[in-house]
Amino acid sequence: MKIVLDRDYVVEKLDVNGKPYIYQQVENSFTQPNGKVAEKMLEWAIDCTQDSQGDLLELYCGNGNFSLALAQNFERVLATELAKPSVQSAQYNIEANKIENVQIIRMSAEEFTEAMEGKREFRRLKQANIDLQSYNCNTIFVDPPRSGMDIDTCKMVQGYERILYISCNPETLKENLDVLSETHNITRFALFDQFPYTHHMEAGVLLERK
User: Fold this and answer.
1) With 80 labelled, which of 20, 30, 104, 139 sits at a CA distance of 20 to 30 A?
2) What DSSP element (H or E) covers 183?
3) pTM for this one?
4) Rounded Cα distance, 190 and 37, in Å
5) Residues designated catalytic
6) CB–CB of 137/121 below 8 Å?
7) How do residues 118-150 score in pLDDT, each as one tens digit?
């Protein structure tokens, strides 16, 4: 049973390179817990992609935390997320920040991989009027759960020129990098201490095709 007396979310404001961003953070949904460190993560990701061409594909987008900040560096952003509350927050955040080149679709990374490979057709894509072939994505951004990416998603991700990977688990990050390093070189790496006084650590990696 869930009893909401007022509302089950807070609205957080982050300052990223002097620009304010508004984020709705819903109870029990994933978010970066340390606002000041989150600002540094966003600034690092913006810097990594500042010379980008074309569109951005993002998997595991959550409430659009990175999607909105990175939109300035791309013509369009197509982002996927499975959790319904996070998708709803992402739509709220797109409107609140008045960003017009970001589109969110509710799909898992595994489902999206199947769609990209033509293995299945999804009504959600048709209903949202999304033509995957119309996107020119040279860069892919991934921020998977602690379990990391499955092997099929890793192989799909290898198809992009540049991979920006945010990880909350160095162990599964290493496993994924063993695969991604077959085709890409690590050109930038950063650590962000989102969880002080614990063994957990956020890591950021930029990979570029060999």
Assistant:
1) 20
2) none
3) 0.90
4) 12
5) 168, 202
6) no
7) 788 888 888 888 888 889 999 999 999 999 999
